[in-house]
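quick one, 372 residues, struct below
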Amino acid sequence: MTTAGSGGGQSRRKISWDLVRAGCVVLVMLYHSTSLSVFLHPELEPRTFEFPYQVGASLLLVVSAYFACVTIRRGSLFRYWWGRVARLLPSFLAAVVVSYSVLRAFPIEGWFFPLPEDLRANLLMLWHWKPQFYPFIDGSHWTVPLQLMGFTVAALLYRSWWGHGSRILIVLWVAVLVPLAQWPIRIAEPIDETYRTVVDGVGMHRWHLFVAGVAIWMWSVKRLSTPHFAALLALCMAAQEVHNYTRTPEGLLADTGSSVAVAIGMCVIALVARSPDMAVPQPARRAISWFAGISYGTFLMHQAIGYIVLRKLQDVGVDTTTQTLAMLVTGTLLGWMLTRAVEQPTHKLLMKPFKQGGGAARTRETKTAGPR
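---
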């Protein structure tokens, strides 16, 4: 969900990418505020407008994988990896603490009330490994450990023999086909808990999103033919549809609408990657770039606290449309504050050693690594 240039300074990226990132976060917020909120808390009144598709967060993972390919060649490999950690981790940790504090300060009867052990588990990102023991303080945070793992695997692959040439294509196909092959085991009842812990812990059922991002980058720089790209992307779309099946007492339930939305989003991202930048009027360009710059903070801060906003406003008789708008505005404001107070200063501080004498390090990297 975060890419190079997020949250600070003049971006070298096309405005089209800022529009993609901003749009994805808006879709996440709309889904959480108009659909998931009522599902998780049935006492909330149905929204006048409902956006029921789980699409934004998945597409943000695709974008993250794309930009991992773009930025991994800039400077040393360790600098690339540390830069991603420095961007993601401090904001995440701060968001967990703030959300925990707000949920405890404004408890709602019958809702999740986090305890100190929940705070520790969330800071350690343990949810995917043991969800029955470690509930989310904010459900939006599920993408963070997957991104950290994805960036780490990208660095290891780029350093290895498997990360270059035609060998990377083998890695991509295997990363989609293996989760698909084991899908019948994953939905079996009863499922072996050790198996589930490993598979969900490493996010195997989400690997296709990272593969899609890498494939889009390879196609955009013409390192992948269009037929090969179309086949690989179609397989990623199929994996998304399979992932969206859930087991219910009535049997397997599909979420084809969300799968189609993600598939369309992948195509849009591919077109943006391959096309020239779009012409956007300057006032709109500034607004889009501003929101894209705070999008990671907004993503982290809008959900759990936003649900409290919905409930408090409902309790005093505010209509559902105004409730939804209030949640969106609150999430944006909190995201801006997190970006300004945490993301930007901590990233600058943590990257300072690389800027002091960084030119020499980059020169050494270029001489030793070279094109591979």
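The radius of gyration is 21 Å.
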